[in-house]
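Researcher: Here's a chain I'd like modeled. Treat it as a single chain, no partners, no ligands.
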Amino acid sequence: MTCISRRQAVIAIAVTITPGTTRSAQAQAPIPKPAIRPATSTAGSLPPIPPLTISPAIAAKVGRQVWHNESGGSIDGLTAWNDAEDFPSLGIGHWIWFKAGGHPLFEESFPQLVDFIRNTGAKPPPWLDKRPVPPCPWLNKAEFYRKFNEPQLADLRRFLAATIPQQAQFLLARTEAAIPRMLATLPDAADKRRLLENLNRIVRSAPDLYPLIDYVNFKGEGVSEKEMSFDATTGRKEGWGTKHLLLEMKPTPEGLPTLAEFSRAAKYVLDRRIRNHPSSQRWRIGWHKRCDTYARPLA
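Model: Modeled as a single isolated chain. Structure tokens:
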């Protein structure tokens, strides 16, 4: 099986994976193709976009932590169907999969994950190992859970549980593809510089890249109007995506102080969202607990 390059993966993810508010259905809407990212910087130019790479062993650690964040590390949590949604959410990133006919509002992402994993050499279950990936075979949530312990869904959970590192690499490809899009939404050169300086600082401070990978999956990139809301206090639109987090970060020494600052900035932009959307208050404790994991290296 021919493996795809990291650059091919980044382009594929950028074209097919949505930069939404979260990994939920509301996040997954069509997106533009990424801009060409600079490989290096020159004198007087902006800081470079850092390369984002992790080893398979580190990807396994990152994947297990994201899995724990999303569904407590539960095998059953790898295949879920949320209330008020017309499709299942699958894998550590809760990628969505449509029935035949698609969905008029959202962009599915599970077929792209299957192709990504297959291109690493892993084999999906025979009923799923088709090109193109077939539509979701379950018609609704009731049927999905009625058949939850039957062979098809059991096979799917085994496949997903065996490919946690590949799923983490898939999330990393989305993170890498997001950087040029975040920069493209910043007309001010000073904001571009601040974002890149803080991005480089967190990349050097977290070689596992877990804080970046998880937050992009958790709360999106920050490039969509859906990731912002009007703040009555400031009179401006304020966001809670990764772009807004990076812009909020203050200069700190590299290492643990930078990890702590990333965690603080994440809590700050999420608390700002809660202030603008008081109904989100019920999620604050869980959100802050997740942000606490960014302040220390993965075990």
